[in-house]
Design goal:
185 residues; alpha+beta; four-stranded antiparallel β-sheet; 4 strands
């Protein structure tokens, strides 16, 4: 038998007590599996070492698979030909769903590289895809050296100078040498 209060009944209506919040932290909707990220990075390292890509390489710094040092050689026929650039790659724990932080450690005079080595490249930001890998990143940066996006510069002086190839090349080499001298000091 079910008992219902009539509308004329003046008895107070009580609602159930509010649920007490759990003291346990809520699990993230996408828990991080560092083991699978680590396995992916090991596969990428093996693939990069076995590839025949000329002018790009990268290796973990010591035992930390999430922190790599990369090297890019300036492409043939570009103003960077004959120069070698060191980069740092920092892979987040949710890689490959988020891009790594990539930065020039060698001074690089370029329209899409700022004075701190930060790189403006769409695939490292809003155009990132989990299908990309370390090899793709390095090759894209190598390509960017010879084909900058002067419409979206981080270094406006370099973007302005880009069309004067002779002066641009002088500045590339001057900054490269000055940066190397500062690095050795």
């Amino acid at each position: 038998m079910e008992v219902r209060n009539s509308p004329s009944d003046n008895s107070p209506v009580t609602s159930p007590p509010p649920a007490t919040p759990s003291k346990q932290p809520k699990p993230s909707p996408n828990p991080v599996d560092t083991k699978s990220v680590s396995q992916r990075l090991h596969k990428e390292l093996t693939s990069l070492m076995m590839s025949d890509n000329i002018g790009v390489s990268a290796f973990p710094e010591g035992e930390n698979i999430f922190s790599w040092t990369g090297t890019i050689e300036g492409g043939s026929g570009t103003m960077y030909e004959g120069l070698s650039y060191k980069l740092s790659l920092r892979f987040p724990l949710d890689y490959p769903f988020k891009p790594p932080q990539v930065k020039f450690e060698t001074t690089c005079f370029h329209p899409n590289v700022d004075q701190y080595g930060n790189i403006c490249l769409d695939i490292l930001q809003d155009k990132w895809s989990s299908a990309y890998d370390c090899r793709t990143i390095l090759l894209s940066i190598q390509s960017l050296l010879g084909e900058p996006n002067i419409e979206s510069p981080l270094n406006s002086y370099a973007a302005t100078l880009w069309n004067d190839k002779e002066d641009y090349k002088k500045m590339v080499h001057k900054q490269y040498i000055d940066g190397a001298d500062a690095y050795e000091s």
